[in-house]
Amino acid sequence: MKQTILRRDFIRTTTIAGIGAAVLNNLPRSFGRSVLQNEMRVGIIGLDTSHSVAFTKSLNTPGKAAELQGFKVVAAYPKGSNDIESSVKRIPGYIEDVKKLGVEIVGSEEELLKKVDVVLLETNDGRPHLEQALKVIKAKKPFFIDKPVAASLSDVISIYESAKRNNVPIFSSSSLRYMESVQDVVKGKAGAVLGADTFSPATLEKTHPDLFWYGIHGVEILFSVMGTGCSEVRRVHTNNTDIVIGTWKDGRVGTFRGTRTGTHDYGGTAYGEKGNITLGPFKGYDNLLVQILEFFKTGKAPVVPEETLEIYAFMEAADESKRKSGATVSIESVIQKATKR
């Protein structure tokens, strides 16, 4: 699906798949070797999410697991959201939490980038992510960008395009992708996946597109087991639940159910040729952290950019379907619209 992407000082024709391939194929060959020589200094941007504290505890606590060795969080820039209360009120407490773990608090992103080798971009608010990511990319620091990648599909595309142009490794994923049961499906224990149903909370945040804020978790589970290739999306609403129905190019159907009330449960079912696998439960962040550290070692993202871009296009198409009273919306149409902004 080709689109013309206009971004500030350049116009070029590309494909979603091309974005991903270019990022992976143009990494510096010496990257993996150089970062393995010494303990890598990890910097965190954003102390307004529990992820920042969880990652720091795992990396900075003595006696950590072997797969977490060789990395330490050394600095953090705490500023996160300006106006999301649930994020802003966390910052003072999280500053104290990471300081107790030996982390230096710095006054700017630029100061942080001078002190670290790699970056965890953790700001809970996706709106400043483009500006923050561009600073990291300019500094040539490989980075993990936590959910949501951005607060618009257009910004998501811009971040990945900029990383590609500058040969900077980038990786994003929900921790739900690395639940053991989901990875069982990825490894083929259910055989070829014929379809899947997933669910997660989908709490609303007025500053973000509907599913970008929290529905991303269940959508990421869906794409983890179904793979890429969704062509169209339809969304329906019933009883405090939004259901998004995706049709893949090969005819398979995958659904995401976003719950608006109740407990924070995550899971679903993958339907395979060898049988069905129940997805869940979520047990913590360390499985994702292991993947992030391997990414920092190699410069190769375990989730290719085209899959991440399709996930956000899926959520944008779900919003567009809602605006159109449940009409079917193509993935290609929302990507084309986002690239014209």
UniProtKB/TrEMBL annotation:
InterPro entries: Gfo/Idh/MocA-like_OxRdtase_N, Gfo/Idh/MocA_oxidrdct_glycsds, NAD(P)-bd_dom_sf, TAT_signal. This is Dehydrogenase. Pfam families: GFO_IDH_MocA (PF01408). Residues 40-170 form the Gfo/Idh/MocA-like oxidoreductase N-terminal domain. GO terms for molecular function: nucleotide binding. It comes from the Bacteria.
